[in-house]
Amino acid sequence: MAIWKTYRVADVVTEVDEEKFVLPVIQRSLVWEEDKMELLFDTLLKGDSFGGIMVIEEEKDTKPLFNYRPFTKDGNFIPSREVEKLKQQQFFVIDGQQRLQTFYIGLKGSINGKVLYFDLFSDYNFEYEFKFEKDENKLPKKSKENNDRKIPEHFWYPVKTLSENLKNTGKYKQVVKEIIYKQGITDDLKKDHIEENILSFYENVLNSETLGISKVVINKSLPEIENRQRIVELFRRLNDGGTRLSPFDLVASILKGFSWEMEGFLKEMLEKYQDIGLTQDNLIKLIFLLQDNHAKEMASIEASDAEFAIQNIDRIKATIKALKDFLEFSKTYDYYKEGNRSFIPLFFISYHLFHKKIDNKTLSNYFNNYETGNTDYPLMKKWLYHSLINGVFRSKGVGWIPYKTGVRKILEVIKNYKNQNFPSDELFKVYIEHPITFTTKYFSDNLDQLDSSFVFYLMYDRTRIIRTNDIDHIMPKNILEEKDFDWNLINSIKNFQLLDYGTNRGTKNGKPFKEWINNPEYVKDKSNYIKIHLIPSDETLWEEDKFKEFSEERAKLIISKIDQYVK
C-alpha cells in the first residue's frame, strides 16, 4: 500500500540532514552532473513538474529490510551501515534519490568543493540561473548567452545563505530589504528582480508543498525475503524512468538488495583491481561464470547469486589476487594496465583458479613458485599469449565479438578440467574447430593477420605500448609509393616501429631511412636503436630500393622475438 503526500522542499531537506530520509543499500551513488543539478532548481522555481519521490516507510525499533547510508553532503560516497534496530522512523528512498540529493547539496552542502549560487538578477520570466562554484570571484560578471536580459550583469548569492536567512526570518520581504541595503542597490529594476527571484525561491522551497512523496508501507507479516524481492522488483521497474541504470548497475543494486555486504565487496574489488580491467560489469559476469552460468539474464537475478558471492567472498578475493600475480609474473600486467583490453581470457584463468581444490591462503600465493613448482603457470601463459597474439578476443577483425559465444564454447571445455592442469591445448582446439583464424606458428606471411597491439608489445620486450607512441613507417611511405612497392607491404608491421611523437613528426618526418639513421644528430646510439627496433644489421638493406629484402629480414627478427616469449 502506498500513501501520497506533499511536502515543502526545505522540510524534507531538514529531515534528510537528520537522517530521517536515507538511501537503502540497493541505491547507487550520486550520478547527476552539476549542470543537471542547477537545472533542477530552475525547474523547481518555475513550478514545473519534476517527478515525485518514492520511499519505504520503516518504523522505529524495527529491523529494516535493507541496510542504509545517509545522503552525502559533499558528493562523496558514504558506505552503508549494518543496522539491527532503527532509532527513529525512517524513509528509505527507492526512487528520486538524485533529486533529493540535489536539493540537499544545494541548500546545505557542496559538490566537488563548490557551493550553489543563485543569480538574483535572473530574468525570472525566462530562466532562474544557478551555478556551482568554489570561488565566487570566478562566477561570470555579465551574461554572454542571453543578450535579451533586462539586466546584463549577474548578482550571485549563496543559496545556503539565502535559504537560512529566509528560514530564520520567515519573511521574504525583510530578507529582500536587507540584501538591497547591504549591496547599496538603488536601481528600481534591479530591486524588482531581486524581490521577484527571492519570492519565487521562498514560495517554492520554503513555503509551498511542491514535493510529492509516495510512502510504501512494508507488510511485516510477510517473510523478509519476500518483502525484499518485492521492493527489488519495484526498484527494477522504477528504473525505467529518470536517469537509467546500466544493466550491470541494476544487477549490482539488486545483488546488494539481497545481501548488503555486496556493496563493500564490489567497491573493494573494483578499487583494488581496476588496474587489470576489473570493472563492475566484469566482476558480476565473473560471479555468474564461477557458478557455470555465464548466460544468466539480468531479469533472472536471484538471492542465490548474492548468497554465492557472499559465501565465497574470500575465495573470489584469493582468486583475483592470484590472477593479478599471474599477469605480473607472465609480464602481461603492463599490457592490461594500459586499459581497454578484453577481460574474457582472464575470466577463464580465474575460473580455473577458483575451482582448484586448495585452501584460500594457498590460492592467494599460488604463483609464488611459478618458475619451478607450478604446473599450471606455463600452460596458462602459453594459452594467454597465443590468444592475445591471434586477437581471439578482440572486438574487431577475426575475434569472437559476441561475449556469450566465445564464453560458452570455452566454458564447455574448461569446466571438464576442474582441479586438473590448465587445458591450454584443448582450448586451442576450440579455436581451430570453429571459424576463427588461429595459429601457434608464426611466419612472415601471417604476421599481418595477428593482433598488432600485442605483437608490438612483444617486439619491444613487453615495455612499449601503442597508445603512448606513434606507429611509424621505418622506410617512408611517400618514397616507397614513388617506387611502386605494394601498398600492403608498405603498411605491414614489417615496416612499422614505435616512436615518440616528437621524433616521428619532427626530425624523422619522411627522410630516407639510411640518411636518417646514420645522422648522429637524429640517432645518437645507432647500435642500440637497431637492437630496440629490430632493424636488420645488414646496412646494404637500408636503402628503399632494397625494401622487399629489408622486410623479409625484419620479419625474421619479429618472429624470433615472438618465439622467445611464447616458447
Topology:
Elements: E1 2-7, H1 9-17, E2 21-24, H2 34-46, E3 53-58, E4 68-69, E5 90-95, H3 97-108, E6 115-119, E7 130-133, E8 156-158, H4 159-169, H5 172-183, H6 188-207, E9 211-217, H7 224-238, H8 247-258, H9 261-273, H10 280-290, H11 303-311, H12 313-329, H13 333-337, H14 344-354, H15 360-364, H16 376-389, H17 403-414, H18 424-433, H19 452-459, E10 470-473, H20 477-482, H21 487-490, E11 496-499, H22 501-508, H23 513-517, H24 526-532, H25 547-566
Parallel strand pairs: 2-5, 3-9
Antiparallel strand pairs: 1-9, 2-4, 3-5, 6-7, 6-8, 10-11
Question: What would you say this structure looks like, in words?
Answer:
The structure is a single chain. This protein is an alpha+beta fold and 567 residues long. The protein has helices spanning 9-17, 34-46, 97-108, 159-169, 172-183, 188-207, 224-238, 247-258, 261-273, 280-290, 303-311, 313-329, 333-337, 344-354, 360-364, 376-389, 403-414, 424-433, 452-459, 477-482, 487-490, 501-508, 513-517, 526-532, 547-566, and strands at residues 2-7, 21-24, 53-58, 68-69, 90-95, 115-119, 130-133, 156-158, 211-217, 470-473, 496-499. The strands form three sheets. Strands 1-9-3-5-2-4 form a six-stranded mixed sheet. Helix 7 runs antiparallel to helix 8 (247-258), helix 8 packs across helix 9 (261-273) and helix 16 (376-389) packs parallel to helix 18. Mean pLDDT is 87; it is low at 396-403.
